[in-house]
TrEMBL record:
This is 1-deoxy-D-xylulose 5-phosphate reductoisomerase. The keyword Transmembrane helix does not apply. Keywords: Isomerase, Isoprene biosynthesis, Magnesium, Manganese, Metal-binding, NADP, Oxidoreductase. Residues 144-227 form the 1-deoxy-D-xylulose 5-phosphate reductoisomerase C-terminal domain. GO terms for biological process: isopentenyl diphosphate biosynthetic process, methylerythritol 4-phosphate pathway involved in terpenoid biosynthetic process. Mn(2+) binds at residues 148, 150, 219. HAMAP family: DXP_reductoisom. One of its GO terms (molecular function) is manganese ion binding. NADPH binds at residues 11-14, 122, 124, 203.
Length: 384
């Protein structure tokens, strides 16, 4: 049986891993839409390779290049934020949501409204609009499959179990490249050092998020929406080897864990084939070669991100969307060389300390909170 597939963010790290997986089983998939922000030539080459129906760039100024690269083919070229939503709404059986940041929110919602299966990597959408998105999933009968490795692990460990029996859900965190750095060293951490993750090869934004531990903070909020056991049952353990991707402890004392190589093709494959399994070319797990697994409590003095995220979840309303927006601004500023590494969490804390907008109740209101929080974070960064 052939299934249709759309990849939102096809040129990124998750998008490439997804395409790599379906390269191995071309007869099983028909590609509907592939999207990117700009990279028109790269997107066009992928659309041609996979025989996609359409290719879409979010940035409309790149549409002319895309059209040019696709001339002579029957692939439809589109551009602009609305076109991303049209592509997402084209009704693929499976949509891989792999845009980075809140920019992915409207397209994810458009896919949810089709009631199809969404493999969700784009965690910022759940952080900013978790309640609204989860309600829409319910209303439209969509299937949300968590692709983030921790959440995919938890999803697998919860399968066939009763939520009422869960005692703890433990998210593991690698601790990032600066796990053992002092506060003084962290203040001087460079862009290049922060972009070198010890275990995972990922896009720039999530790599910086891993270094600050905002990635784990965002994942805490993501887990809170996906697995309704309550915030007080979610905890974080630092596990530098990234072999155990997360765990669920039940009330009888049993802990189920999912293990695997640090390769996103494993959780993506789990989503693509769910509830079945598919072959991947991933390296098998060689536990004797790994030798030992370590676990530590997170240090929220040096890495305040997880504390800020927990507080934002507790505050509820607009706070998680403000946290996400401020973090996106801060990461961009750090990558542009405008602020120091430790200023990332400081900027998020300063933005959250300002009066919060009212709780958003629709997608449009979340996007308005996001825009307002970005403006505020930018003003804190560069006072007029
Ligand atoms: P990436 O930067 O490698 O790729 C992002 C993709 O989104 C690209 O195709 C890019 O063109 C597109 N894009 C970026 N900005 C856009 C915009 N404004 N409008 C439309 N398209 C836009 O990112 P990634 O590492 O693949 O991560 C994607 C998402 O998956 C993020 O939310 C990340 O947190 C999550 N995630 C990634 C990994 C990983 O291993 N890379 C693991 C878990 C979760
Ligand atoms: Mg993760």
């Amino acid at each position: 049986m052939t299934r249709s597939l759309t990849i939102l963010g096809a040129t990124g790290s998750i998008g490439s891993s997804t395409l790599d997986l379906i390269r191995g089983e071309r007869d099983k998939w028909r590609v509907k839409a592939l999207t990117a922000n700009c990279s028109a030539r790269e997107l066009a080459a992928l659309a041609i390779e996979f025989g996609a129906d359409m290719a879409v760039v979010g940035d409309e100024t790149c549409l002319a290049d895309l059209r040019d690269a696709l001339s002579g083919t029957s692939i439809k070229a589109m551009g602009g934020p609305q076109a991303l939503c049209e592509a997402a709404a084209a009704g693929a059986d499976v949509t891989v949501a792999a845009i980075v940041g809140c920019a992915g929110l409207a397209p994810v919602m458009a896919a949810v409204e089709q009631g199809s299966t969404i493999a969700l990597a784009n965690k910022e959408t759940l952080v900013s609009a978790g309640d609204i998105l989860m309600q829409a999933v319910e209303r439209h009968g969509a299937t949300l499959l968590p692709t983030d490795s921790e959440h995919n692990a938890i999803f697998q460990c919860l399968h066939g179990q009763n939520m009422a029996d869960v005692r703890w859900i433990t998210l593991t965190a690698s601790g990032g490249p600066f796990r053992e750095w002092s506060a003084e060293q962290l203040a001087k951490a460079t862009r290049e050092q922060a972009l070198k993750h010890p275990n995972w090869d990922m896009g720039a934004k999530i790599t910086i998020d891993s270094a600050t531990m905002f990635n784990k903070g965002l994942e805490l909020i993501e887990a809170w929406h996906l697995f309704p056991v309550g915030l007080d049952r979610l905890r974080i353990v630092v596990h530098p080897q990234s072999v155990i991707h997360s765990m669920v402890e039940y009330r009888d004392g049993s802990t189920l864990a999912q293990l695997g190589p640090s390769d996103m093709r494993v959780p993506i494959a789990s989503c693509l084939a769910w509830p079945s399994r598919m072959d991947t070319a991933c390296k098998p797990l060689d536990l004797p070669a790994i030798g030992h697994l370590n676990f530590f409590h997170p240090d929220e003095e040096r890495f305040p991100a997880t504390k800020l995220a927990r507080e934002a979840a507790e505050a509820g309303g607009a706070a998680p969307a403000v946290l996400n927006a401020a973090n996106e601004v801060a990461v961009a500023a750090f990558l542009a060389g405008q602020i120091a590494f430790t200023q990332i969490s400081a900027l998020v804390a300063d933005t959250l300390a300002k009066p919060l907008p009212p709780a958003p109740t629709s997608l449009a209101e979340v996007l308005a909170v996001d825009a307002e929080a970005r403006q505020l974070a930018l003003r804190i960064l560069e006072p007029a």
